[in-house]
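Hi D.,

Good news: the full-assembly prediction came through. Inputs first.
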Amino acid sequence: MSKFKVMEVRSSRGKNIAEVFWDDGHVSRFHTIWLRCNCRCSVCCRTIVGQSLVERSKLPCQLLVSKGTIHDDGAQINFKLAPETDHVTVMTSDWLRSACYCDACISGMLDEREMKFHLPSESQLPVAEYEQLDTDKGMFELIGTVFDRGFVVVKNVPREDRSVIKTGKRLAPLIETVYGEKFDVIDVKSTENVAYTSIGLPFHMDQCIYEAPQGILLQHALRFDDEVEGGNSLIVDMFHVLDIFRKQSPDDFRVLSRVPVPFSTIDYEIPLPAHVVTRKPIISLDYDDKVVGFNFNPGTEETLRVHEDDVEPFYRAYVRLEKLIYDPKNRLKFRLRSGDMLCINNRRMVHTREGFKTNGGVRHLQACYINIEDLRSKYMVLSRKLNRPVVAPKIGNCSSI
Ligand SMILES: [Fe+2]
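Then the structure:
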């Protein structure tokens, strides 16, 4: 039983487009080349995963709708596309309707995936329990919180060395970086990396140095003694900030979506010698002009080298953006406890820590990264398994879907 039913098919614009009239009043317009390339017949389309077997290079330069016929009481439509004589382009109504690319359907598709913003002043700290990982339901809800809120604090993670890796791997595959498979954030009075001191850090996303920064950052508090003064975690939803920034300073917003910033970690003397560098704008927009990603890490930013006319506008825009990031209204502040594991969507949130005094105590976080696309995949697979339908959320990986 199909959900959507086709009432009528007409050709328009010199037969280059098929107009499909649906039983709920909606009208879709499909180009002939689009119909042919997306044919659902058993020859063109592998039914299990839906991969296309259409050889596009062998298609005629122009296809015209010569006939559109409705079958199975509106559940299927067959198109004869001239000059092809030996092929019928087949569409099931439900699939065709789900693929409609009119403006209303496209914006509906994008809107339902959009992130929902939560004002820090009106939000509780999102928490989950380590034992949730033992059940599909618990895992599904934990991951759902990460995508809904941008982060979650997982309580009572076993306080053992490498626990963060073991826990991370239960969620999604680990991704190594120039710091190896994990790194220890502890005050060792480092002269190389300010993260390994007790100094407060600027807000940042991790690993902008890569073309695709690691998606999920896990920080496990192996020890966070009561004597330690300060060291609170601070988190800001950068997508929310960019939404405000775009409305308040549209010209500045455009500058930061155009002017590229170099980011790098180049050091041949560290235990894992590294030379990783890239150059990209702070704000990533897509085809629909929506924010789909960002890059922000003052600590790994390299010297700006751009056209002369862009220098002052860039710094003016940067200063305004940073003011919004540091606006206390936009940030959530909390203290991790020993055994807590912070799970952050690094492609959505910027984070930092306050400076701290150990006072004879210890603040020791162990951290690693896991793949965000795999985490979302797990979320969707669990949704199906548990019969709890959700729409695949936008996650900040430079894609709107
Ligand atoms: Fe960080």
